[in-house]
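Hallway conversation turned thread

IA: we were arguing at lunch whether anyone had actually written out NAD(P)H-dependent FMN reductase end to end. Turns out nobody had. So, for the record, here is the sequence (185 residues) and right after it the structure tokens. Reply here if something looks off.
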Amino acid sequence: MNIEIITGSPRENSVTNRVAIFLKQLLEKNTTHTVDIIDVREWNLPLLQDVFVSVDATPEEFKPLSKRMFAANAFILVTPEYNGSYTPAMKNLLDHYPKQTHKAFGIVTASPGPLGGIRATQQMQLLINALFGIASPYMLIVGGVDKKFDERGNLVDQSFQKNVDVFIREFLWLAESLYPETVLN
């Protein structure tokens, strides 16, 4: 299965990105799935003018991104909270690819504050429904992200591992249930 982790923070020194790096390493180590990170900072997408309905219908500079988006079987969305929601950069990227029918989505929010972006999770559920995706009800909400993960994406607060394990187990159950042919028996 192809899993894309979309990290939605446009900030140069994003602490949210640490979680995306950790999840990628964890999934690569413990599954046979192909896992990669789409970082909104690497794609200078214009404000939405055209929806990319296929790789061929995508402007040349964004075809590598489109190939990954269309090839993905599942997504994990990782975002900080901006004014009670996910980032505009995340929204802009996903608006270019509005139909993700029957694809599994995991929701991860992170914040240096104690609530970890809980309000953004509610908005992300609405977004995933609008994309025709299926959201895992088990979300990973990371309060104090700067104290739980170091700059290289290593988990430094081992008491948080159980939260990660539950999130990953439930996300993979959903994704693999939607695409059973991708699971090796």
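OS: looked through it. Strands lie at 2-7, 34-39, 74-80, 104-111, 134-135, 140-143.
IA: good, adding that to the notes. The chain has a mean pLDDT of 94.
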